């Protein structure tokens, strides 16, 4: 039997990249999935089509996680479409690097609003619907421990995700709701291609510091998420799992 049969998941920022890989992985294990997108409906629809073509269940739902009403709408969509909620993957995130001289109020609020406030708002909306055995999976980054130059704001948001994961594991533990974080290293995604990172000196230096000697792929993160969503990890909470090929 599939590990997640009968369970329902919400994956934020799932129209591409790591989020899309996680949505497909959870669905392949039997979960019904809400595939959230902020702007790329086409991408989310393609993820849903892939899932349904393989016999799974998924619905694309638009929403900006940094707005409380829209964050709540994602959770409402899970209940309306599938009748319950068991798994929340807080994957929505943006990155934009700048030296300290280049940090602006706009830069700060844009990144913190999505990466931190969005995670809190979706989790807040989800908690009333989560029962014993539910799993919240936050997507952090090895940036919180590697702390690369020119990433004060981005790495700051991921440090916040680490702390929030620990706090919520204690807060929700008595309700038998588990909260863990996956902290990827560099992963080959559409965003990495668009930003021109793939063949950059930054990417080469990252690979050089990675013991397993390559950039990650979406499935490298998705398989960890499927594990954390399943009962196989029912004794894990408050954990920060670095999934970066040894980079930390």
From TrEMBL:
Recorded GO MF terms: glucose 1-dehydrogenase [NAD(P)+] activity
PROSITE patterns: ADH_SHORT
EC number: 1.1.1.47
Keywords assigned by UniProt, alphabetized: Oxidoreductase
SUPFAM superfamilies: NAD(P)-binding Rossmann-fold domains
Record-linked InterPro entries: NAD(P)-bd_dom_sf, Sc_DH/Rdtase_CS, SDR_fam
Family: Belongs to the short-chain dehydrogenases/reductases (SDR) family.
Protein name per the record: Glucose 1-dehydrogenase
């Amino acid at each position: 039997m599939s590990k997640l049969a009968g369970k329902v998941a919400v994956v934020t920022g799932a129209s591409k990249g790591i989020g899309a890989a996680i949505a497909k992985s959870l669905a392949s294990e039997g979960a019904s999935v809400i595939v959230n997108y902020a702007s790329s409906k086409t991408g989310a629809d393609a993820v849903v089509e892939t899932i349904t073509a393989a016999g799974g269940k998924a619905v694309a739902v638009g929403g900006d996680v940094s707005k409380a009403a829209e964050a709540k709408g994602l959770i409402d969509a899970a209940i309306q479409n599938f009748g319950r909620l068991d798994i929340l993957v807080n994957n929505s995130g943006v990155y934009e690097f700048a030296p300290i001289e280049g940090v602006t109020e706009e830069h700060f609020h844009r990144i913190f609003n999505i990466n931190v406030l969005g995670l809190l708002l979706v989790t807040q909306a989800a908690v009333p619907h989560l029962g014993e055995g539910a799993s919240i999976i936050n997507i952090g980054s090895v940036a919180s421990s590697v702390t690369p130059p020119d990433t004060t704001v981005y790495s700051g948001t991921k440090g916040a995700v680490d702390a929030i994961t620990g706090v919520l594991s204690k807060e929700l533990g008595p309700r038998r709701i588990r909260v863990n974080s996956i902290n990827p290293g560099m992963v080959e995604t559409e965003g990495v291609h668009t930003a021109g990172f793939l063949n950059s000196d930054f990417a080469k230096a990252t690979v050089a510091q990675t013991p397993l000697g390559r950039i990650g792929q979406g499935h490298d993160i998705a398989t960890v998420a499927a594990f954390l969503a399943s009962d196989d990890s029912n004794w894990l909470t408050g954990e920060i799992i670095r999934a970066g090929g040894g980079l930390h």
